Amino acid sequence: MALALLHTSPLHVPVFDALRDEDHPGLELRHLVAPDLLAWARAEGPEAVAPQVTAALERAADGARAVLCTCSTIGEVAERAAARVGVPVVRGDRPMAAAAVTAGPRVAVLATVESTLAPTLALIEDEARRANRPVRARVQVVADAWSRFEAGDVEDCARLVAAAADTVTDADVIVLAQASMASAQRLTSTSVPILSSPRPGLAAAVRAAE
User: Fold this and answer.
1) Side-chain half-sphere of 107: how many Cα atoms within 13 Å?
2) How confident is the model over 140-194, as pLDDT tens digits?
3) Spatial separation of the C-alpha atoms in residues 47 and 51, rounded to whole Å
4) 20-33, pLDDT tens digit by residue?
5) How far, in Å, CA of 173 to CA of 80, rounded?
6) How many CB atoms lie within 10 A of CB 111?
7) For 99, left (φ over 0), alpha (ψ -120 to 50), or beta?
8) 68 near 4, Cβ under 8 Å?
9) Residues 183, 181: Cα–Cα separation, whole Å
10) Is-contact 83 50, C-beta < 8 A?
11) DSSP state, 127?
12) What is the pTM of this model?
């Protein structure tokens, strides 16, 4: 069984390969990396790249049982394109959002790029409606973290995100909005639960592929 993944950074490939080895040994992952999709979406908005996202998903789906979109900025666009792709399309951050609304009404969202804020907030509100739970989400962009990630300094990006997470006290859960932020979890000291998307997103995509 093959599972395709659509990424907007090549740095996600080893992250998901490692998760596959830990949780789903033997699973074939096919990675399609399209950084131009995120650059365009950041400049023009996610809707501006909807046709290109659909085309990328169609390419990724060739020979695969399902496609996992790991980019939170274009996740909503990817979900809507599923009907045209021919295989299940899983939005990588949806399982994380579903878990967040069950943790309590006070959700703190951390991001490293502003383009992911609106899609992530809309997703959390959607999951809150599905679960019939109240939610009050607030957002914070971690200064300088994205520039470190773009430069390939994943560890320094993680340190900045972890430091921001450790300042959050009045929340029931902290959501790390982007897959690129997941490694910060192991560096935090806050007692507030922290959620990231790669592991639950991959698990959901495996279930969809099966």
Assistant:
1) 31
2) 999 999 999 999 999 999 999 999 999 999 999 999 999 999 999 999 999 999 9
3) 9
4) 999 999 999 999 99
5) 28
6) 27
7) alpha
8) yes
9) 6
10) no
11) H
12) 0.94
